[in-house]
Amino acid sequence: YAAAHPGGLPGVDDQPPSALAPDRPLLCIPLPTRQAPLGVVTLSPPGDRWDPDDAVMLVELTRRASIAIDHAQRYQHNRDIAETLQRALLTELPAPPGLALAARYLPATHGLNIGGDWYDAFRQPDGGVIAVVGDVTGHGLRAAVMMSQLRTALRAYAVDGGSPGQLLTRLHTFLHHLQPDLFATAVIARFHPDDPTVTWAAAGHPPPVLRTPDGAVRTLDAKPGAMLGIPMHQEIADHTVPMAPGSTLALYTDGLVERRARGIDPGIARLADALGSFGPAELDTDLEGSADGILRPMLSDSERDDDVCLLLCHLRGTG
Fold first, then answer.
1. Where do the record's region annotations for Disordered lie (predicted)?
2. Widest distance between CA atoms in the chain
């Protein structure tokens, strides 16, 4: 829309005085979308009047800009929905006596922010606590739905008791028969208030990292089982290590430690360094802050191509 006298046109009140001069033409170009217009671009010519070719070019540029803005807004809307759904699938952690838990979930910086990473922790009928971190292969709604089904199945199986290895073996059979073309990794740790040890098992998942009360850190690198859901029979083994009060166990997904062209081992070493950097009382008094303190150096060097899960399990000190 072009007008020699722009008075009364919508959107011109915020134009500079030179654009509102009665003797100066004004070009107003709507920003159309598939639903409602985004607004109007109001332009004044560099000279006394608009060149027809310039006007045609500006109309086309504005049309393309409108399409780009509309797509960006729709993408952001879908991204927000996906992240809200992902967080709704993550549970609130329990607060069992003597055991502190802190979890962090961060979506990938690319894509629609929905994937198959999850963490969970819950009590078993005998007083034990199960902590789990898992990762369904792929991204998108299908991976998120499968993640939710695995989490629900694990809780159901754990009601009957069972060690981490037994629970993972049942999850393996469940996934293979339910979705033969989907796979997952997971690590489960079991704590019991009457037992100064932790029993853990992994299926195709990065190993837990354990910090002892004296500040020493080591990777629990016992041989894991294969990925959940692959077409093979497997009985996933349990591993038990001492875990004295003041110890901290870190469970995580590969998005925290794996970077392109560098593999996973350097990232696990960095995680061990970060976990070992805290003072003697920091993990006891502020586990939530400690989780943030681990993420900052781990994620400061690059954008995230994958989701990130971190679950810290800290046995409170006797003092």
1. 1-21
2. 88
